Amino acid sequence: MKKARIKALLVDKENNSPVVLVEIEDTTKVIPIWIGAFEAWAMAMAIENVEFPRPLTHDLLISCVENLNGKFDRIVIHSIRDNTYFASLYVIDNSGNQVIIDSRPSDAIVLSLKRDIPLYVTEEVISESGIDLTVDIPSENEEDRRFKDFVEKLDIEQLKEIMKHKERKEDEPDINDLEDEE
Predict the structure, then answer these.
(1) Which residues have CB under 8 Å from 151's CB, separation 6+?
(2) Which pLDDT tens digit goes with each residue over 3-60?
(3) pLDDT digits (tens, 9 = 90+) for 138-179
(4) DSSP states of 42-58 as a string?
(5) CA 117 remoteness from chain centre
(6) Which backbone phi and psi does 3 adopt, to 5 degrees?
(7) Cβ(95)–Cβ(114) under 8 Å?
(8) Which domains occur in the chain, in start order?
(9) Which residues touch 88 (CB under 8 Å, ≥6 apart)?
(10) Which one of 11, 25, 114, 128 has the largest count of C-beta atoms within 10 Å of its C-beta?
């Protein structure tokens, strides 16, 4: 198991999907994890340390654990099945017992960012989906080269613009809803 951190939150231009790059400490590898728009928004808010007057879902979980005298211990991204990543949140309860909670990596990463919870990735996940960002382009296969280009061209500002656009679209009435009212 290797310690990791968030390297970047990006947008895949091909399908406008947010991607979080998890950087493996003391290596040149990253793990790309495609996530949903709402999870990306929560992650971006955590990266920017934005506070809200009322608790959001991640804040609620943090409050529950801390008010029950629990302590966040670590997060482990431990496996991949059918192109889906799996993670566990390790919590120490008020009696000192370790509780392991199944989690989506995106939610666990938001918690990690909000409370500086150590993030780890198993060797299995690293070997299966780790991408070395220092590989020379001539020796890369087409997929590796495209991914490297993707990483170099995207930034969080692009994600913010996509999120604003999605929020506007969600506020617009659905044409089918209008037809039903007639």
Answers:
(1) 8, 10, 21, 30, 133
(2) 999 999 998 888 889 999 999 999 999 999 999 999 999 999 999 999 889 989 999 9
(3) 555 666 666 666 655 555 565 556 555 545 554 554 444 444
(4) HHHHHHTT---SS--HH
(5) 14
(6) -70, 150
(7) no
(8) 2-181 (3.10.690.10)
(9) 75, 76, 78, 100, 101, 102, 103, 108
(10) 11
CA distance 83 to 160: 26
Site of tokens 């061209």: 153
Cβ(131)–Cβ(29) below 8 Å: yes
Query: In angstroms, what CA-CA distances link 57 with 5, 11, 60, 137?
Result: 22, 23, 5, 42
Phi then psi for 72, rounded to 5 degrees? -75, 130
CA 72/CA 69 separation, integer angstroms:
10
Q: Rounded to an integer, what distance in angstroms lies between the CA atom of residue 92 and that of residue 104?
A: 19
Cβ atoms of residues 140 and 156 within 8 Å: no
